[in-house]
Design goal:
39% of the residues lie in helices and 23% in strands. It has nine helices and ten strands. The strands form three sheets. Strands 3-2-1-4-5-8 form a six-stranded parallel sheet, with helices on both faces. Strands 6-7 form a two-stranded antiparallel ribbon. A two-stranded parallel ribbon has the order 9-10. Helix 4 packs parallel to helix 6. It is globular. The structure holds NADP nicotinamide-adenine-dinucleotide phosphate. NADP nicotinamide-adenine-dinucleotide phosphate binds next to helix 1 and helix 4.
Length: 216
């Protein structure tokens, strides 16, 4: 099974993905700018599978076979650029959304290349970028008893990479993998997160995407 490194893994998004990956049997390294913070955070995450979650620096996390970027959007490009040579030849999954809060709504921002996934692809020309996990509420992900039954919408220009990520997602408890298509869908998929979070603010909920009408 592949090892998975999560850059910015100490935040709610990284923790939620890590705990479900470990519950599917993956060994995960939670990356951080501060190894001690990562070790402390990792020790609080109780996965229910064969996988082990360890904490380390982002640099160590980047040694894993598959990498997930889970930093705030403002720091995502700078974080991966520092690790460019380690990330070369690997699948790098972006779950990064560029959003700003205005009152009770989240507003999507459009980065110069249209999406954060495209920004990361430009910063990492020797890596394969796949988008996934954008719409998942972190609190529901981290709580393995939340009853989560969510779809993960996946996109990439690399068919083999997006299929590999889809296989991994399908193994994670509570998640179904849906391959949407190519990188051209990235800005729409990322921006839709603003809709999801705005709905959750309005309804004081932790709803998530589950598409109807698909055959399992
Ligand atoms: N929260 C969600 O429900 C959710 C769901 C889906 C997708 N996302 C996306 O996932 C990403 C992370 O979300 P989050 O809520 O977990 O964010 P967060 O808590 O604000 O940040 C995650 C981690 O990023 C690191 N970080 C913060 N500022 C940084 C900087 N200037 N440079 C480098 N690293 C920095 C921090 O780790 P260290 O201090 O340990 O380095 C922090 O714990 C975002 O892009 C978000 O849009 C979030």
């Amino acid at each position: 099974m592949s090892t998975v490194g999560v850059l910015g893994g100490t935040g709610p998004a990284g923790r939620g993905v890590a705990i479900r990956l470990a519950s599917a049997g993956y060994d995960v390294i939670l990356g951080s700018r501060d190894a001690t913070r990562a070790e402390e955070t990792a020790s609080t995450l109780l996965a229910r599978g064969e996988g082990v979650i360890r904490g380390a620096t982002n640099d160590v996390a980047a040694d894993c076979e598959i990498i997930i970027v889970a930093t705030p959007f403002e720091s995502a490009v700078a974080t991966v650029k520092e690790l460019k040579s380690k990330l070369a030849g690997k699948i790098v999954i972006s779950m990064v959304n560029a959003l700003v809060r205005e009152g009770k709504e989240l507003i999507p921002l459009y980065p110069p290349r249209g999406s954060m996934a495209a920004q990361l692809a430009f910063a990492l020309p020797d890596s394969t970028i796949v988008g996934a996990f954008h719409h998942l509420p972190a609190s529901e992900m981290e709580n393995l008893d939340s009853g989560l039954d969510a779809d993960v919408v996946i996109f990439s220009d690399d068919v083999a990479a997006r299929d590999r990520v889809a296989t991994m997602v399908a193994e994670m408890p509570g998640l179904r993998a849906i391959v949407a298509g190519s990188m051209s869908l990235a800005s729409a998929i990322e921006a839709f997160t603003a809709v999801c979070i705005s709905i959750n603010i309005r309804y004081k909920a932790h709803s998530y995407v589950k598409l109807a009408g698909l055959r399992d």
